[in-house]
Amino acid sequence: MYEDRIRCAALHPKITTAAEAARLVRNGMRIGASGFTRAGDTKAVPIELARRAREENEPLRITLMTGASLGHDIDRMLTEAGVLERRLPFQADPTLRRAINSGEVMFVDQHLSETVEMLRANLLGKLDLAIIEAAAITETGGIVPTTSVGNSASFAILAEKVIVEINLSQPLALEGLHDIWIPGRRPQREPLPIVHVQDRIGTPTIEIPPEKIAAIVITNEPDSPSTVLPADEETARIAGHLIEFLMHEVKHGRMPAKLPPLQAGIGTIANAVLSGFAHSPFEALTMYSEVLQDSTFDLIDAGKMVFASGSSITLSGPRQTQVLAELDRYRDKLVLRPQEVSNHPEVIRRLGLIALNTALECDIYGNVNSTHVGGTHMMNGIGGSGDFARNAACAIFATKSVAKDGRISSIVPMVPHVDHNEHDVDVIVTEQGLADLRGLAPRERATLIVERCTHPSYRDLLRDYYRDALKLGGQTPHDLGRAFEMYTRYKETGSMIPRSNTV
Questions:
Q1: What is the pTM of this model?
Q2: Sheet strand arrangement including 334-336
Q3: CA-angle at 348, arms to 291 and 245, nearest 5°
């Protein structure tokens, strides 16, 4: 009954249960699993792994590598069962986050383009097993990915053995949507030959010797829907500032009227801001990004976007149902690539991307913290934002100016953790306004960020801090004794703002 899904007859005897396939996992293994921002993740074998760890009295601790975050509470179940010893390169699960911050799980936060580079160079040890979700297996044993490629291709190539989960809920129309190209080994590597967003340079399937496939499990479970929230008044204002900035760039000849390709990070703010382009004057938009979210398909449906390249399709529930049912309508406008290609610095720089990513907070000189609350506690990870920020033609970071009902300012004197330093940040935008930092010295940056991006209730605090810091001098003036006083106040009172002020 699975002949349309498993077209290599020699592999039919490999069909087994998730419980039996999970027996291939042993204590101390390094496992590579498919999944990128809740899309295309394996949905049966990891759950059986968690069950086995809970019910059987034997050590079972693994290193788990993925493309990015997983859906279906997989990280939660594996954490609660004590399976995860080490996790990389990204996660977004509250239970796992607590285990990371308590030191129970070692988390390696990596640029998403680097994980398989490090595997390939034997810097992370040998990969014992890959668990990959697929829509089908071809006559020659080629694996057809589902809604993400992520690191799946390199995991399958580098692993000793491969388990394939054939997901019947994923349409066969996905076949042909992928472009699998793997960089050669350094230092003899050839250039990565993508010169246009729509270029296809590889194969539509993950090609491995069929004998590497040790087990095939049949599943029938859709991807977990994304958790992005609808656009609101503040994200609409951020979008408005950004569109006005880009129109100004075009008017002054610094960008072409047909904008360079766009990149947008995962999450509510980036997705909502990108949706705002549906009401912009820009036409024939293209995208070269990691994640294709609701906004990508909103722009395609609005006739604004003509092509989008990514590594995953991560959608809200209703949008996921609609897009997968009508995939033939989008096929000529989409391609999914391995994340080491979607996030490759060479291509990002060549295409001259406009990169839009989200900041937890920024400081007055343009340093950005994307990952650590209070400088110490991990949220999700840096993801691909660093890949794009360092190499984009224009690196933009967006955030609302305040959080926690105004009790936290997203603009601070000095960020306590830096993911993107001032040298990689071109533009900061909040609902208050936009600061173009290109070509400015630190003192010029500080004035611009405070006046244009800070919430009014925090503006005087930052003006006072900067005025006093100037008295101490320096290329980048700081009063190190006061740099984190807003954090101290928040810890002591529950708000960064003095009690005499209100937001």
A1: 0.96
A2: 334-336, 305-310, 285-288, 262-264, 354-358, 394-398, 427-429, 434-436
A3: 80
Q: How many Cα neighbours within 13 Å face the side chain of 205?
A: 17
Q: Which one is catalytic: 48, 165, 290, 361? A: 290
Q: Rounded distance, CA 287 to CA 184, Å?
A: 25
- CA–CA separation, 1 vs 442, rounded Å? 65
Active-site annotation holds for 290: yes
Pairing of strands 434-436, 427-429: antiparallel
Which residues, 6+ apart, have CB-to-CB distance to 226 below 8 Å?
A: 37, 38, 293, 294, 314, 315, 316
Pairing mode of beta strands 411-412, 408-409: unpaired
Q: Per-block average pLDDT, block size 10, for the chain (503 residues)?
A: 92 97 98 97 98 94 98 97 98 98 98 96 97 97 98 98 98 98 92 97 97 98 91 93 97 96 92 90 97 96 98 96 97 97 98 97 98 97 96 97 97 98 98 98 98 97 98 98 96 90 51
Helices then strands, counting H and E runs in the chain, come out as: 17, 27
Contact (Cβ atoms closer than 8 angstroms) between residue 435 and residue 453? yes
d(CA 291, CA 307): 13
Closest Cα to residue 16, out of 145, 211, 163? 163
> What tokens does 336 get?
């999914």
